[in-house]
Amino acid sequence: MKFNKAAACLIATACTASLFSTVASVSAADAITISAETKAVEKDAEFTVDISLAGVPSSGIAGLDFAIKYDTSLMEVTGVTEGAVSKTNDKQVEGFSSNLATNINNGAVSVLWATGSVSDNSKWIKSDGVLLTLNCKAKGTGDAKVEITKGVRKDATGIDVAVEGLEVVNPTAKAGTISIGKPVETTTPDPTQNPTTNPTSDKTLLGDVDCDGKVDITDITTLAISLVDKKPVTGQAAINADVDKDGSVALTDLARIKQFVSKVIDKL
Ligand SMILES: [Ca+2]
Ligand SMILES: [Ca+2]
Predict the structure, then answer these.
(1) How many domains are contained in the chain?
(2) 20 to 30 Å CA-CA from 173: which of 63, 130, 188, 221?
């Protein structure tokens, strides 16, 4: 299988800045808002947080590059679900199903949305609505802030939104607050019961780059971002990522994982 590096660029943020040349005019920026949901949840609950777009210009949005930061002492993000406005039926890099790439790391979710059709805005984001949903778990009680912020990569200087003419503009960011409630009743902790964390994380599962016990699109985006950002995965993640077992983690491994996730091959 061929893996097109230029195409990979489109989904992996390193190229966004050069792809969408910066232009001084910011007229469209005033209107666009990226916001995190505010809600109340119960203690220890599993919950979701919608990340939404508003004020999307009629010409559309060609690219988005930002991060979501959250309070790791009060909540954990376990996954990301693609939202309706992200699904534009754009032409995809082989093996990819979406323009959306995300990476959960150290209290931040990096988000990149980039079209493969820079000269045709019919496949750009055209409507307001939910871009993605964070799947979360509450820890403790209190108010957990969910902030929309600039990308976490070294080359990211702001929240970039590319619009018509591929101008890069800075949108308005609105943080959300998750109020995590107090327990209805207190239970005495059972000293014989230790909470288990990541029971599968130290077991080799080929293709499971983020070590969550399953092989899916998140592993593809995790590995793609790691390769393009030149930040190698380490430890069990590196063992899991080297699916062709040649001793290094490379684009060939990414290509195989993509084939597996897109069901071109049935085992790794
Ligand atoms: Ca995984
Ligand atoms: Ca390899």
Answers:
(1) 2
(2) 221
